[in-house]
């Protein structure tokens, strides 16, 4: 082997060994030196401690939070020196300039008529520059639609963010030609709610959408197939807390409904059945078993499931519980 090749080989070997040493040190820094337990950061006290034995590994850590305190949202906004974080829920991710609608200066004084006209022209051109092409206009309309439907369905921010990402993927992969913006936005929101374990039924989503249920189902199947989304079957138990809350039922009913659904799942009763119908029947059966009676009509109104379905599933759940007992 020549001297040049030998030097190159030695250099590569030293670099590989140094990289492995760094990885080893990083791995060791994540474990406790005393008991090899899990290490956590206590940001409140500025310490790095072991979650198992309580050993303080590091103290006087750097506080990366603000040096000021705020006791309400208005005071927080007043003292903050940075803008809002970037978000996928806005077509420009919140990075563009936004001119306020108030015709006042920085001191709260009203603007003159000439200044008001000038600000109106600036707002108009600023809005035009924020959506410079058809794709950005499409995205702006769709994200507004997702926000409207998510607000009507009471879905959290995480679901809205995920739905925005799904829609952006559909737009970038050119899946929108031949389909409406509302249809793809509705499908993205429904898939996001399923993925984030806060599902809503097809009927609930269709009620707040601007498209009919048939187009919604067709577009949803297409989006899931083309994007390869992993959407697990909805768990009936995930609907129970919301239904119990809307019916003003105690925790005991919710707990018993979950037990009924677990017994039915073990017995294979839930296979091929609507999860919303099973959840409604479980709520009704649990209310009877715990002496917090509600009528089938009341459950039907809240869950949007027919009384016939509730009666059929209710009998099946009770039979599965008797078999389990």
Automatic annotation (TrEMBL):
CDD domains: CYCLIN_TFIIB_archaea_like_rpt1, CYCLIN_TFIIB_archaea_like_rpt2. Zn(2+) binds at residues 32, 35, 50, 53. The keyword Zinc-finger applies. SUPFAM superfamilies: Cyclin-like, Zinc beta-ribbon. Sequence repeats lie at residues 144-227, 238-319. InterPro entries: Cyclin-like_dom, Cyclin-like_sf, TFIIB, TFIIB_arc, TFIIB_CS, TFIIB_cyclin, Znf_TFIIB. One of its GO terms (molecular function) is TBP-class protein binding. Residues 28-58 form the TFIIB-type domain. Residues 85-97 have a biased composition (Polar residues). Residues 1-17 have a biased composition (Basic and acidic residues). Keywords: Initiation factor, Metal-binding, Protein biosynthesis, Repeat, Transcription, Transcription regulation, Zinc, Zinc-finger. GO terms for biological process: transcription preinitiation complex assembly. Residues 1-33, 72-97 are annotated as: Disordered. Stabilizes TBP binding to an archaeal box-A promoter. Also responsible for recruiting RNA polymerase II to the pre-initiation complex (DNA-TBP-TFIIB). Belongs to the TFIIB family. This is Transcription initiation factor IIB. It comes from Halobacterium bonnevillei. The gene is tfb.
